[in-house]
Amino acid sequence: MTERLRVENLYKVFSKSPEPALRMLAQGAKKAEVLVKTGIVVGLNDVSLSVPTGAIYMVMGLSGSGKSTLARCINRLNEPSAGRILLDGQDIVTAGEAELRDIRRTRISMVFQHFALLPNRTVAENTEFGLKLQGVSPRVRRQRAEEVLSIVGLARWGNHYPHELSGGMRQRVGLARALATDADVLIMDEAFSALDPLIRTEMQDELLRLQRSLKKTILFITHDFQEALKLGTRIAIMADGELVREGTPQSIVLEPGSDYVAAFTREVDRSRLFDARSAMNPVQPVPLAAGLSLAETGDGGGLVLDDAGLVVGALDADTLRALRTGGTSLGNLLRKDFVTVHECDSLLDVARAHRAGRPMAVVDGAGRLTGTLAADRILAGIASTPPQAAGGPHA
Ligand SMILES: Nc1ncnc2c1ncn2[C@@H]1O[C@H](COP(=O)(O)OP(=O)(O)OP(=O)(O)O)[C@@H](O)[C@H]1O
Ligand SMILES: [Mg+2]
Question: What residue ranges line ligand 1, CB within 6 angstroms?
Fold first, then answer.
C-alpha cells in the first residue's frame, strides 16, 4: 500500500516564543506540566502517523485532544512548531507561499463541521468557489459544480440558497465543494457532528458509498468512536496532543492498550465489528475415505470435504463413531443440514444463521472450507473476552 500523507514528529505549541515549551516536551514533559510551568498551551506533542493512499483515516479523541490542530497543521492553517508533514513525499511545512496556495487549491480539500457556506451565494456558486479561486472559466466550473452536486445527490439544487436546505443537504454542499477541486486528500473535521443522528448515519453510508468509486485519501476527524469504527480503515486516537493508539478498528477494540482507549471500546457492538474468521477454529482435515477428508467440528462430529475443499456433507458424532469402528459404510450417512457462512460475515449474521445441533462451515470466496464454528466460539467472539485459539481479527 502506498503512502499519501505522512506526519513525522509534529509539534504545535501556541506561543510566539515556543522554544522553552518545545524543550520541555523534548525532555518528556506533558501538556499539563508545560501549561503550569510556562503558561503555554500545547496543541500537538510529537505526533507521527502514516495515511495510506485511499484510506479513510480516522483521528479520534476527546474535546481538546488536538484533532483540529492536527488537521489545521496539515494545510497550514496552523503553523507547526516542529516536525514534518509529507504529502506524496513533499514537505508541506517548508512549502513556500505559492506552493502552499497550490496545495490548498488542488491537493488538499477541507470539509468543516459547520459547512462554512456563503449565505448569499447559490448552492452552485458555493460549490464552484474553489474553482473560481483557481481561475477556472465560468462555463467549465459550472459544469463541474453540476457534476459533483449530482454525485452528492443534489442535482437540480444548484440555483437554491443555503438557507433553503436542511442541515444534511448543506453538509452535502460542503462535501461537493471539497470534491469539485478534485484534490486527492480530503480533510473532514467533525464534518457530520452537527447533523442529527438519522441524517448523520445517512451521510456516513453515503460517504462509504462515494468512497468506493472516488478512492480519495480521507483524514476524518471525529470525537465519536462509533463513527471511527464505522468509517475507518485505520484509527488514530489522541489525548492531550499525543497520539496514544493507532491501528485497525478491530485491533484497537481487541487490544485497547490503555484505560483511556478501553473506555471508548466498552460500548462497541462486537457482533457487527468482528467476522466469522475472527472466531472460527481453522480446519485441519484428516483423510476419511478415498477422495474425502474430515474436518472435525469439536462436538465429536465433522464436516466431510472433497479434494477441492468443498463441503459435501456432515457426520454427527454417533455416525462417525460407527463409521470408525467399521461395520457401516459412508454411503448415505452424510447429513446435508450443515449451515454455511462466509469468512467475512459479521458475527451478528453468523449468530443469526446458527442452528442448534447443526454443524457450521466457514468457507472462503471459492466455497472452500476454512474453519468451523460452534456456539461457544461465536459467543466468545462477541463477548468482551477475545477468543484465544483462533487467529484473531485480520488487520
Ligand atoms: N488558536 C489557538 N490558540 C491557543 N490554543 C489553541 C488554539 N487552538 C487550539 N488551541 C488549544 O489546543 C488544544 C487542542 O485543541 P483542538 O481544537 O485541536 O482540539 P480538538 O481535539 O479539535 O477538540 P474538539 O473536539 O473540541 O474540536 C486545546 O487545548 C486548545 O485549547
Ligand atoms: Mg476540533
Answer: 14, 41, 43, 61, 63-69, 223
Residues 252 and 314 in one domain: no
**CB-based contacts of 95: which residues, under 8 Å, 6+ apart?**
76, 103
For residue 392, the model assigns a pLDDT of 40
* 218 and 86 both lie in a single domain: yes
- Across the range 306-318, mean pLDDT stands at 91
Q: What is the CATH number of the domain that holds 298?
A: 3.10.580.10
Beta-ladder partners of 59: 221, 236
Q: Which of 341, 348, 338 is nearest to 364 (CA)?
A: 341
| Mean pLDDT of all residues in 89-112 | 91
**Domain of 64, in residue numbers:** 3-107+183-268
**Residues in Cβ contact with 118 at an 8 Å cutoff, skipping those fewer than 6 apart:** 125, 126, 129, 162
* Nearest protein Cα to ligand 1, atom 8: 69
Query: What is the pLDDT confidence band of residue 115, given thresholds at 50, 70 and 90?
Result: low
DSSP three-state, residue 356: coil
Beta strand pairing status for 292-296 and 242-247?
unpaired
Residues 96 and 191 in one domain: yes
- 249/287 same-domain check: no
> Do 240 and 311 reside in the same domain of the chain?
no
Among 234, 268, 302, the domain-final residue is 268
Atom of ligand 1 nearest to the CA of 221: 22
Q: Which residues pair with 91 in a beta bridge?
A: 86
Pocket test for ligand 1, best of 41, 188, 242 (most atoms within 8 A of CB): 41
Q: How far apart are CA 202 and CA 192, in angstroms?
A: 10
Q: Looking at the predicted structure, is the pLDDT value of residue 387 above 70? A: no
pLDDT at 91: 95
What's the maximum distance between 2 C-alpha atoms anywhere in the chain?
90
Give the other-Cβ count within 10 Å of 143's Cβ.
12
**272: its cell numbers:** 457487527
pLDDT digits (tens, 9 = 90+) for 30-86: 999 999 999 999 999 999 999 999 999 999 999 999 999 999 999 899 999 999 999
Q: What pTM was computed for the model?
A: 0.79
